[in-house]
Amino acid sequence: MSIRPVTLPPLSNSIQARVTLTVATVSVLLAVVIGVGLCLLVRHRLEAEIFRETRRVATEWIGLMERGQVPAPTPTARAPLVQLVDSRGRVVTAGPMAGDRPLSTVRPTEENRIHDVTECPSSERCVMLTAARVPSLQSGELWQGEPHFVYAGTDQPPALRGRRLELLVGVGGVLLVALWTWTTWRGTGRILRPIDAIRQRMSEITANDLSMRVPQSSGHDEVARLARTANQTLDRLESAVTRQREFAAIVSHELKSPLTGLRTGLEEALLFPEIDPREAIVRALPAAERMQQIIDELLAFARLRNTPCSAEPVDLGALVRAEAAARTTGVPVRSRTEPDVQVLGNRVQLASIVTNLLVNAQRHATRQVEVSTERAGAHARVVVQDDGDGVDEKDRERIFEPFIRLEAGRRLDPHGSGLGLALCRAIAVAHEGSLCVEDSPRGARFVLRLPILTG
């Protein structure tokens, strides 16, 4: 068997690529939202903690200032820069790390005495500080009302300088997005790998070899169920093709004999002038009729399989009584039916089942055939019973196969096609029913079951 080359689908048509791209897009959006929120939160937290400390240092130093005395500043580790500046911008007193230049030019007003600011002088470090105005009462006692200002601050943390925080968060977000995208690509590829194996195997299966099956795992996930369903479909397809091939072989065999006889008779009439043409035609007619019978039954068999039949309510008891009454020749037929046994189906096809079963029973019966119709739960049951030799248990399914004829059938009906019972079962199955042979003390007992018409 030749194996066709397998071509990979374009990347734009790849489920793996589309899923990965979708996840990457969502990841980028989430990373941006989370990154912005994280940066704002970190900045707010750090600034709030620093300004809380600088405010505390500034207000406590102002609170310690008394009449005629300004205590030394008390810087802390978190607020090491502390200054007292007059209204002309001169440093009155300062902590050891604050220097002799004012930390800020911000001058809070009397109405708004405390400001939190960040000063970034050119070419110098940024300072986060609190500018607090000394209350006018204390200014009047200490400096004859001249405004003085207290600055308490600290160098801006490295995380808040420039865009370092955003850069760090951005780099972390990019790494996380890349990791998540790579993980999605690998995970999706692993999930789709069995599906790709199924696709490759399906591309290798041809009508000439239906024995191959797709790889099937032992799990219960969607891929495992897909593989099992595909293998079950292939099993049914292989069985159907095998049955069709066997059916075609049987049909060819059944048609070969009458066709050979017909051709032989016609060739003899052509080769031997002494043969009467009319007599040759008369001898050929039985073979032609047999072929026509086989072809008609084959067409009915195929039409039943491929074409849905029209359905109508059918009184099964009345139909059985009418068909039994029509059997006026041969072994007598006795019917026994229950009233109002309604089924949904095609009247002509159901009648053909009953007719075929009665003809078959009369052919094998010795004295009498009995047919009955009754309710059996949710089904209507038609039983055709003869008093002949019956059917061996090993042959009870074989007789429903096309062209299968037992020895007794060939002896009693040498011109039969072997399609009657097969057609009957096919009609029963098409009506969601069944047809089988059941045990009986004597003779053959054929039982047809059809769903009762409700409502």
From TrEMBL:
<dbReference type="GO" id="GO:0005886">
    <property type="term" value="C:plasma membrane"/>
</dbReference>
<dbReference type="Pfam" id="PF00512">
    <property type="entry name" value="HisKA"/>
</dbReference>
<dbReference type="InterPro" id="IPR004358">
    <property type="entry name" value="Sig_transdc_His_kin-like_C"/>
</dbReference>
<keyword id="KW-1133">Transmembrane helix</keyword>
<dbReference type="Pfam" id="PF02518">
    <property type="entry name" value="HATPase_c"/>
</dbReference>
<feature type="transmembrane region" description="Helical">
    <location>
        <begin position="20"/>
        <end position="42"/>
    </location>
</feature>
<keyword id="KW-0808">Transferase</keyword>
<dbReference type="GO" id="GO:0000155">
    <property type="term" value="F:phosphorelay sensor kinase activity"/>
</dbReference>
<keyword id="KW-0812">Transmembrane</keyword>
<keyword id="KW-0418">Kinase</keyword>
<keyword id="KW-0472">Membrane</keyword>
<dbReference type="InterPro" id="IPR003594">
    <property type="entry name" value="HATPase_dom"/>
</dbReference>
<dbReference type="InterPro" id="IPR036097">
    <property type="entry name" value="HisK_dim/P_sf"/>
</dbReference>
<dbReference type="InterPro" id="IPR050428">
    <property type="entry name" value="TCS_sensor_his_kinase"/>
</dbReference>
<dbReference type="InterPro" id="IPR003660">
    <property type="entry name" value="HAMP_dom"/>
</dbReference>
<feature type="domain" description="Histidine kinase">
    <location>
        <begin position="250"/>
        <end position="454"/>
    </location>
</feature>
<feature type="transmembrane region" description="Helical">
    <location>
        <begin position="167"/>
        <end position="185"/>
    </location>
</feature>
<keyword id="KW-0597">Phosphoprotein</keyword>
<dbReference type="Pfam" id="PF00672">
    <property type="entry name" value="HAMP"/>
</dbReference>
<dbReference type="InterPro" id="IPR003661">
    <property type="entry name" value="HisK_dim/P_dom"/>
</dbReference>
<keyword id="KW-0902">Two-component regulatory system</keyword>
<protein>
    <recommendedName>
        <fullName>histidine kinase</fullName>
        <ecNumber>2.7.13.3</ecNumber>
    </recommendedName>
</protein>
<feature type="domain" description="HAMP">
    <location>
        <begin position="189"/>
        <end position="242"/>
    </location>
</feature>
<dbReference type="InterPro" id="IPR005467">
    <property type="entry name" value="His_kinase_dom"/>
</dbReference>
<dbReference type="InterPro" id="IPR036890">
    <property type="entry name" value="HATPase_C_sf"/>
</dbReference>
